[in-house]
Structure prediction request, 465 residues.
Amino acid sequence: MALVVIGYYASDLNAARKVGKYQDSKWVFAVVVGCMAAITALVFGIISIFSQYRTIAMLFAWEWILVILWAAVTGIFGKMYLGGENDEMDHGVESMITAAAFDCVNLVLWFISAVIGTKGRRNKDDPFHQSSSATLGVPGYDHEGSQSRTDNTIVVEYPEETKDFPPEPTIQGRGGPHLKRTLPNFSLEGRVGVVTGGARGLGLVMAQSLVASGADVAIVDLNKEEAESSAKAIVEQFKKDNPNAQTYDRSKFASSKKEGIFRVPNVTAHHCDVSDPTSVETTLSDIVGKHGKIDHLVTSAGFTENYDAISYPYERMKKLWGVNVDGTYLFATGVAKHLMERNATSGSMVFIGSMSGSIVNVPQPQAPYNAAKAAVRHLAASCAVEWAHANIRVNCISPGYMLTALTRKILDENAELNKTWTSLIPMGKMGRPEDLMGPVTFLLSDASLYVTGADLRVDGGYTCT
Prediction:
């Protein structure tokens, strides 16, 4: 604005110069004063770039006030006509002096505005205030970003040998009839569910939730002995929880079923490498042979490791993807094919993803695992759309940090990691494996008949922050 006003006066002086109606000394003086006024206006513009919003607002307010005053002064002096001898030059110089004077006043007012605006600023000695300037090239501080970065010194390799796994007990008191009222469509009575990775950890607990809800279960695992042991333990635990449970010869019944809330579940164990198509196909045939059908699938087979992305052994990364992603895909497509061949009126699957498929965990580095679980989550949505016409529902559960026996072992060896994890969970604690029993039963049962393609996060609010 100041430049526009100065330009207005300068045009009159230039007109006077062209007709020779000016004095050299006055012309030089007028040019110097005009340049000073122009520089002052430019200083306003440059400094205001680095000012806070409050100061800039006040600066513009003063600029408009002075523009109005300049206009009033112009009216007082009147239009500079070219008819006089040196009057035009005198008036032009006086006008330019007036413009420069107002710019000087404006400069003073700007500094006053800057001082007033500074009162609302944060303390410059505050490190968090200083950190905000780090993006401008100012050296940062140790705390900056430290809680939102990965730590490459954390290395955790998934155990290869069974002896390296801590014992995994079954959940007590979770099965059979009870006197609490609930919706009947949460029941899985008469259904058959397949749980991959069901010999331990989250898979074992979810297999038990299916049994507790009335289903027969096929436990699939790479470790055959542990799968058989877990299958037996689930049945024994059910009998303890239900002392009136009935045992009988299933071969006497045409459908190999006997209805009733005290019916002892049929829990079988199956060895399978979920990343191998041939192994998966053989296992599914074996399950159908022993159970007669498959209604539900829970893909819990999976594992994670912690290496920084650059150092991650490629062969281990392929194995991780083979189990987490390929295994989910192979079992899902195999079960979907079975359901379509049966013309089943309903079938449902739950892929076990992870909150890591939606966020980046810190401080432990695990890029391949995060990407794999993101793939599982989107695979569930994609299959849900593809198979909706066949009445097959596909959903995903994304657990947060769960205290499985293996997780407890890792955290017992790294107390600082445990502290960091829990500090990032709004609920202030890690989840229990049994916290997944309700969600998986809901998504498999008729209680969720209109739910497909969903991602249910069970993470204590971790991904909300």
Observations:
- The first helix runs from residue 2 to 18.
- The chain has 13 helices and seven strands.
- The radius of gyration is 38 Å.
- The chain has two domains: 2-130, 162-464.
